[in-house]
Design goal:
- This protein has a seven-stranded mixed sheet with strand order 1-2-3-4-5-7-6, with helices on both faces.
- The protein is of the alpha+beta class.
- A hairpin with a 2-residue loop joins strand 2 and strand 3.
- The termini are far apart.
- The protein has a single domain, classed as 3-Layer(aba) Sandwich (Aminopeptidase), CATH 3.40.630.
- This is N-acetyltransferase domain-containing protein.
- Pfam families: Acetyltransf_1.
- GO terms for molecular function: acyltransferase activity, transferring groups other than amino-acyl groups.
- InterPro entries: Acyl_CoA_acyltransferase, GNAT_dom, UCP028520.
Length: 198
Amino acid sequence: MSIVIRDVREHELDSVLALNNNAGLAILPLDSAKLHRFYERAEYFRVAERDGNLAGFLVGFGSASDHDSSNFAWFRERYPQFFYIDRIVVASRRRGGGVGRAFYADVQSFAELRHPQLACEVFLDHGADPALLFHGSFGFREVGQNLMPEVGVRASMLMKELCSYPWVRETYGDDLPDLPWARTRQLADARTERPTGT
């Protein structure tokens, strides 16, 4: 019954796509090309496993990323440095079982080593109270609203200060210890590089 959070594997992308597109109105649909761009570019792209089955995923980007979301752009216009949760999806049969909380604990641990704030949004047009309560219980607060021009959906823009970041930055700067839980995700481009002469 334990939840395992780990980096996504390329062969799981079709399952991730199905999870996303079956999630309902609170998540924007994806196509295979955009999901592969996430796989190639996202600093954080992890899945949750429960009882050996895929239970959800979370995708996130640092503020310096090349990411084309209008909500990401909204944050970037207003904040110099943050980590952005683009989307989190939990399989319907796993909702309420702690998968979302496990993801948020994991993504915060990842982000607070690198960024002073954690950003995300909640769509307000589709029964947002459970999602707003969930985020509020993690210390997020609304910093504005954005009407997403590409889909006409209004979003509550949420931000959370990461109180450990100043200490991490002062103590380690850009030289974090080489520990499994502190490592940055190896991006797809780096995985496909081959040593010279092979």
